Amino acid sequence: MTLPEGAYRSNRRQPAGRCDKGNGGNGRDNGIGGSSSHQEASAAAARAGCGGDRVRFSVLTLFPEMFAPLGHSIVRRGVERGLLEVRLVDVRDHGLGRHRQVDDVPFGGGPGMVMRADVLARALDEGVPDHGEGWVILLSPQGERFDQEMAKRLARKSHLILVCGHYEGIDERFVQAKCNQEVSLGDFVLTGGEIPAMAIIDAVARLQPGVLGDSASFESDSFQEGMLDHPHYTRPATWREKPQGLPKAEADGGEKEWSVPEVLLSGHHGEVAAWRRRQALLRTLLRRPEWLPGAGLTRAEKVLIERLATELAAMEESGE
After folding, report:
1. Annotated active-site residue in 100, 104, 141, 278
2. Is 141 a catalytic residue?
3. What is the C-alpha R_g of the chain?
């Protein structure tokens, strides 16, 4: 797999006499982000502007190459500004013997292989020497489900250490001895913990001051206020397109004209804000009604929600 220059570097050990030209020849730069002198100067300036604070992510993984997407977009921007640090620790570098063994058969029998506690502990101790000051998270199907509230809690920590499981599982002794928390993305099966780890990094990174250009960008995100987001529109104001998925008899009618709601073209900021709030309320009622009790609704909004809920119930009964 070919990765863009500067997008990914792990702490993979180099054989004697060999240097990695991609990271300055020392083979030890294990971060994500650019490495030019201009980027380093920008990062130093950003650190000075934000009081020197930055959030650190350390990731223990068997497949560090999977994290190449973090070398782009918001996370890379945060790294280059000196607001984020992402370090990748290749667990296999700390494996046993010439083959760098990281797993073994399960005691008691059964299918699959189990990642060894001693290998993971060595990767943690050697790859993240200051892990005692961090918060160690195992990405696991048995963990607490990740959501925006958890992202906010994790965003208050200065160093998150994410352990990506693989195979049949991880030796429970490592979980008990080293992990502060187990986290799951949801009730579905993935090959390993790398995708959940990237999701957590992205969700937490965007909550850090200065990572997004406009703080309103995340303050208006879905979930941030306990509601789904309102619909978004941009140019052109009128768009003609044939609807997808209609029965052939209806599709033969040709293109349909799709227009932006008039209120968004009015220039009246108060009416726009009110429309967006109502749309967010409606979407949340239809798709995630369980969120509404904690959404901080006004008395008028509660009355509106009750009326909409009654109308929706009547429509369902009538089969509309």
Report:
1. 141
2. yes
3. 25
Q: Provide the whole-model pTM.
A: 0.77
* pLDDT over threshold 80, residue 314: yes
**Measured between alpha carbons, how far is residue 152 from residues 24, 140, 210, 308 in Å?**
36, 20, 15, 31
Residues 151-195: tens digit of each pLDDT? 999 999 999 999 999 888 999 999 999 999 999 999 999 999 999
Locate all alpha helices (DSSP H) within the chain, ordered by sequence.
37-49, 73-80, 117-127, 148-155, 172-178, 194-205, 216-219, 248-251, 269-287, 299-318
Q: Which of 20, 40, 221, 301 is catalytic?
A: 221
Which one of 3.30.450.20, 3.40.50.1580, 1.20.1250.20, 1.10.1270.20 gives the CATH number of domain 238-318?
A: 1.10.1270.20
User: 20, 104, 168, 301: which one is catalytic?
Assistant: 168
Looking at the predicted structure, is the pLDDT value of residue 140 above 70?
yes
CA distance 316 to 320: 6
Give the Cα separation of 302 and 48 in Å (integer).
46
Looking at 3.40.1280.10, 2.102.10.10, 3.40.50.300, 3.90.550.10, the CATH number of the domain 21-219 comes to 3.40.1280.10
The answer to whether the CB of 131 falls within 8 A of the CB of 58 is yes
The Cβ of residue 280 has, within 10 Å, a number of other Cβ atoms equal to 20
**Six-digit token string for 144:** 């607490």
Rounded CA-CA distance 101/248 in Å is: 58
